[in-house]
Backbone:
């Protein structure tokens, strides 16, 4: 049976740079992947819908964009027989890096990865039944992402740096309670991040020990000591360094139930999420099968 491909291009990803990259590469793509479909899409909801439909008719569905695009495609592909591929032309591309892909490479490089058909099985976390693939952040992390989404003229890590400075001035601590793997949990915090991967926002080493295939998640907590420590933690992250143990706490877990009474912001893979007073967090039983580069090669 022949392998069939559908490429789903997020036209809004990376200020339309993803769309431009694919349009300029169409001749090469069609030569390397004969018979493939290329669909240009501007709506996240439409991305999910098209991913679900394409997963029924294609051997592989290729996400062309960044982490938010990859999340939408993963939600549509997960649970089907289709594989997921990536052409990482977004602003961060952290999920692509986690499966061995290099960024800012030629279209030939990404097509060769797809054609080699090396399948990597990655964990699929959910928060309130919403799939994410890399990280979810609540509090300072979510507020930074909210501000970053408004900086349309900036790109990449620059917009997160400015957004982080604004969030530093406006963030408020909040109380999180609940259970983590059955144990009681209660903290006053600046932020909590749920990590399936190690890096978010292109360079922020939020959870250095996270591996997205170990059937475990990490809860990264920055307690509400004082605003100065929050600022220092953000500076270290901006320099590509991990938050030191004196500023943070990391809990490895499989399932958590958390309650937050205070108003807050949340992001899932850099996309603004729907806040709630209750969060259920766990891993899906089925892996997501992605075309990547295995680490032993």
Residues:
């Amino acid at each position: 049976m022949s392998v069939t491909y559908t490429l789903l291009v997020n036209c809004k990803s990376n200020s339309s740079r993803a769309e431009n990259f694919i349009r300029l590469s169409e001749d090469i793509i069609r030569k390397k992947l004969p018979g493939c479909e290329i669909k240009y899409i501007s709506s996240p909801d439409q991305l999910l819908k098209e991913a679900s439909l394409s997963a029924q008719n294609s051997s592989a569905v290729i996400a062309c964009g960044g982490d938010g695009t990859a999340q939408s495609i993963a939600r549509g592909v997960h649970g089907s027989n289709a594989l997921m591929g990536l052409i990482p032309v977004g602003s961060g591309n952290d999920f692509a890096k986690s499966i061995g892909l290099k960024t800012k490479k030629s279209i030939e490089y990404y097509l060769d990865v797809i054609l080699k058909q090396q399948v990597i099985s990655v964990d699929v976390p959910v928060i309130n039944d919403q799939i994410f693939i890399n990280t979810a952040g609540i509090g300072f992390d979510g507020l930074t992402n909210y501000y970053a989404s408004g900086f349309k003229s900036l790109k990449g890590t620059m917009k997160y740096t400015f957004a982080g400075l604004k969030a530093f001035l406006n963030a408020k601590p909040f109380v999180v309670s609940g259970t983590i793997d059955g144990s009681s949990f209660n903290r006053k915090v600046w932020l909590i991040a749920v990590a399936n991967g190690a890096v978010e926002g292109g360079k922020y080493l939020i959870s250095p020990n996270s591996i997205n295939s170990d059937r475990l998640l990490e809860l990264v907590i920055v307690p509400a000591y004082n605003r100065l420590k929050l600022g220092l933690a953000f500076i270290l992250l901006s320099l590509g360094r991990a938050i030191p143990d004196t500023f943070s706490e990391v809990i490895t877990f499989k399932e958590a139930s958390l309650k937050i009474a205070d108003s807050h912001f949340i992001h899932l893979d850099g996309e603004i999420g729907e806040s709630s007073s209750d969060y259920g967090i766990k891993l899906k039983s089925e892996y997501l099968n992605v075309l990547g580069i295995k680490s032993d090669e």
